[in-house]
Amino acid sequence: MNWIDRLALFTPLDYAALGLLVAAWLLIGWRIEHPGKHPSVSRLMGQYRRDWMVQMVTRQPRIFDAQTLSTLRQGTSFFASATMIAIGGAFAMIGNSDRLTGLANQLTLESDPAIVWEIKVLVIVAFLANAFLKFVWSHRLFGYCAVLMAATPNEPEDRTAYERAAQAGEINIFAARSFNRGLRAVYFALAASAWMLGPEALILAAVITFAVLWRREFASQSRKVLMRRNARVSDTPS
Question: Which residues are within 8 A (CB) of 199 and not within 5 positions of it... i.e. 6 or more apart?
Fold first, then answer.
């Protein structure tokens, strides 16, 4: 069976559902990182990361800063390991196509060939692979941030102190952005698993995942708390 025949096994609704999933993933990622006048939680946290590095210059000793950064690196390492395990499990499912087909047919009561289910699993793997690469890069960037923090002079009067702190802050933001991209890929990998139940389930999962991410970034209680800082700063007389 060539690829044209394999693609013919899917209905137009399947392609529409898959297109919606990818479009929702790309759109919410772009909106979070380019929020305009209504900043997302991720963008608001960026300023706090810059402030953290400024405070780090005069904090003695810097054990708290080192522990905080170590915690962030542990989080990226955990998710990178988890996605690797998930990818391995997905390939194991593909390798045991008979069991995969039997389980999938029981869920949907349809007798689609094994290649259909394998392609659906590969979509999940694609999202997980993207997440893994983002987590690994985030882990490395947090490592760069640690080096910059260590290279920041202890004396605030040193002209390079705040310059190094600013560099560390930006690298910290880049690391967090990559980590958040990895998390979004995991969310949509979970949504992609709904395709096992059919294209209708995939459409519903894509919409729900988009809505959940939108609420957390633009309409959550945590965002309201973070916005209080911006309001106080704007109300401070110059």
Answer: 11, 13, 14, 16, 17
**At CA 64, angle to CA 57 and CA 170, rounded to 5?**
50
Token digits of residue 213: 């991410």
Whether the Cβ atoms of residue 187 and residue 208 lie closer than 8 Å to each other? no
Q: Which two tokens stand for residue 9?
A: 């096994």
- Any idea where the domains of the chain sit in the sequence? 12-30+40-230
Q: Which residues contact 207 (CB under 8 A, 6 or more apart)?
A: 20, 24
> Do 13 and 199 form a contact (C-beta atoms < 8 A)?
yes
- Over residues 156-202, the pLDDT tens digits come to 888 899 999 999 999 999 999 999 999 999 999 999 999 988 899 99
The span from the first CA to the last CA of the chain, in angstroms, equals 72
The pLDDT score that the predictor gives to residue 5 is 65
> And the tokens for 31?
């909106």
pLDDT of residue 111: 62
Nearest CA among 143, 150, 97, 145 for reference residue 121? 97
Six-digit token pair at 35?
């929020």
The pLDDT tens digits of the residues spanning 43-55 come to 999 999 999 999 9
- Tell me the whole-structure pTM to 2 decimals: 0.88
- Helix 41-58 with 63-95: angle, nearest 10 deg: 140
Q: φ, ψ for residue 22 (rounded to 5)?
A: -65, -40
- DSSP helix/strand/coil, 1: coil
